[in-house]
Model the fold of this input.
Amino acid sequence: MKVVLREKILRANDEIAEENRKALRHKDLLTINLVSSPGAGKTTLLEKTIAWLRERIRIAVIEGDVYTTKDAERIAGQGVDVVQINTQGGCHLDAHMVGQAMTQMDLNNVDLLVIENVGNLVCPAGFDLGEDFKVAVLSATEGGDKVAKYPVVFQKAEAVVLNKADLIPFTDFDLPGVQGEILGMHPGIPIFVTSARTGEGVEQWCNWLEQKVENKRKGMQG
Ligand code: MG
Ligand code: ZN
Done:
């Protein structure tokens, strides 16, 4: 496992994101940017996603974390190539960090590159990393009010994963209400109800993701 540290950069994020996107386009792979609050279960979802898909598609991961390598170690345990970015206190990944991480990986034989962003629902929504699309993860234990409080990430995402569904009976999370609210701000967006811990709903999410990888390979949009 390799670790990339943040460095100061003056060029505009969007310009570097476009360079990343151009470099990734040549590799013929799908790149997703996983965004959520801290503790929503992105890493566990990713572990289950890798376990589900690794026989069929080749996966590599860029792990964003503020200081530690804990998540990257878990992902490396799944037997996929992972590069850790330590933001050194920074609350989001930027395109330059991701570009640096990409230089540490062999992306020629990869079908799906997953970027796990730093846990934060605010600024990751505003930083293009060069990905094909963002996926927002929201957990039942955070409360459904996050959708109204952080609308941008749900508007920009291509799909939403509502995770920790096994814990809904122990919370006042209003599943139909939250689904309706997300669809109200982003009509038609796919919403997957999962428990990464128990595996519930992971199959539907993985089937959708695999189809996206397939579409990208065939050069179709989305
Ligand atoms: Mg994580
Ligand atoms: Zn930030």
Summary: The radius of gyration is 16 Å. Strands lie at 2-5, 30-36, 59-65, 81-86, 112-116, 133-139, 159-163, 191-193. DSSP finds eight helices and eight strands in the chain. The first strand starts at residue 2 and ends at 5.
